[in-house]
Every structure is written in C-alpha cells, then in structure tokens.
Design brief:
Layout: H1 2-35, H2 37-47, H3 57-68, H4 79-88, H5 100-110
Helix pairs in contact: 1-2
C-alpha cells in the first residue's frame, strides 16, 4: 500500500515538473518571438532533423515520371465537370518552365526573417 502511494507521488511530481518545464519553454519562446523573430525561427529550424543525404537524380526522375507520365482515367460522366466546362469553357494550360532563378527569388520572399 505504501509503495503504491509513493509511486503515485513520484508520478504526480514528474508530471508537475514536465508541465513546469513546458511552461518555461513556452514563456521563453513567446518572449523570443516578441523580441527577435529572426532568431526564433532560426532556433526552430535548428531543432528540426536535417536530412543530409541528397536523393539520386535518376531515382528522383523515376519517382516523378511514374506519377506524372502515367495516364489517368477520370470519370467522364461526372456532372460537375460538365457544369464547370459550360460555365468557364475549356482552357488549356500554357507551357511553363520553372527555372532555378525563379525558385531562388521566390524562396527569398517566402521567409523574410531569414534574410
């Protein structure tokens, strides 16, 4: 009986410490976000697991070509597709090439605190 009560007390104390530490971390992160957002986001990025191995180009090309190059049959009898076609007409996408420069410029705009 005494052993069980001690176990419960230890468990309760451990949970109390966990809540206390979580609150301290939350307080520190809130203060850092308020004072220095750039450093806050840098610290978040450092805590994330960094993947250092770059995938093989051939494997990457195979993965995406399997997804995009295989034909897909859609339900041609779906009523909503006919409604959309009648409302907007049939539009074809223009050919569009994404360049490295486009990605770099958009990435700079995406995370202004990392500049």
């Amino acid at each position: 009986m005494v052993l069980e009560e001690l176990k419960q007390q230890v468990t309760a104390t451990a949970r109390k410490i966990e809540r206390f530490e979580a609150r301290i971390q939350q307080f520190q992160q809130n203060r850092q976000f308020k004072d220095n957002q750039k450093q806050f986001y840098r610290d978040l990025d450092e805590k994330e697991i960094q993947e250092t191995e770059v995938p093989d180009q051939a494997a990457t090309n195979k993965f995406w070509s399997d997804l995009w190059d295989s034909p897909v049959e859609y339900n041609q009898k779906a009523t909503w597709t006919h409604d959309v076609k009648s409302e907007f007409g049939e539009h074809k996408m223009k050919d569009f090439t994404i360049t490295t420069e486009m990605i770099k410029s958009d990435a700079k705009l995406d995370c202004p605190w990392k500049r």
